[in-house]
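Record type: monomer structure entry
Structure origin: computed from sequence
Chain ID: A
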Amino acid sequence: MLLTIDVGNTLIAFGVFDQTQLVATFKTATDSKKSLDEYVSTIETFMQFRKLDKKLFRGAIISSVVPILTEVIKAAVFSAFGLEVVILNPGLKTGLPILIDHPNELGSDLVADSVGAIAKYGTPLIIVDLGTAIKILAIDTKGAFVGATFYPGLYVAVDALIGRAAQLSRISLTRPKKVIGKNTRDSMNAGAIYGTVGMINGLLLHFEKELGYQTRHVLTGGDAIYVKDLLPDFIYDEFLILDGLRVIYEKNEVANNAK
């Protein structure tokens, strides 16, 4: 079995693969103040709850956009499993051509999203990842990453609005039945959710116009749950990034075995 870990700005997602099958997942809040021992305990509790045998694991791979936690999570996995951990960084074999101005600037999460989507859905693709930021990614007909658009995530946008408007208070995101809100809470939720859907659909048209062809559309990320029912043309894949990490690990495993 293989342990895959995505360290995001808001959540850390753990996934366990048996061959190509994702058999267990777990998410916990990203907290840079947590100690190594606390993360070891979190991992071991997950393993015990899902009744997973540590002896069956052959390896682990981490994607992280929180540098301060990368080594902590790596050490926690080694402590819990005794496994050497692969870190997804620019030096790792991914099989993804990156056709942007500064390829090394591309986040490991976006690399894993792209690799996972190409492996599962083919090309060309537009991938929308809703997390702390909304990332819209373009994959061309040859399977190359050709660019992206970034936008504030749902909660980031709402928090920014609350911070600038004295009479608005914090809300929990829920989709109202109508776009035209009749109260403050519904009005804020409508703006956040329906506004995000409108932005995604609008940018989708621009992406395909610039690419010059239509694409398949994939939706992922922790906040995709709020908009997935409003984007019927998208394939919703909650754990796409974990699939990408698995594919990348296997590419490097094969390459290392061939040496």
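Annotation 1: DSSP finds six helices and ten strands in the chain.
Annotation 2: The helical segments are 36-49, 67-81, 108-121, 154-164, 184-211, 240-257.
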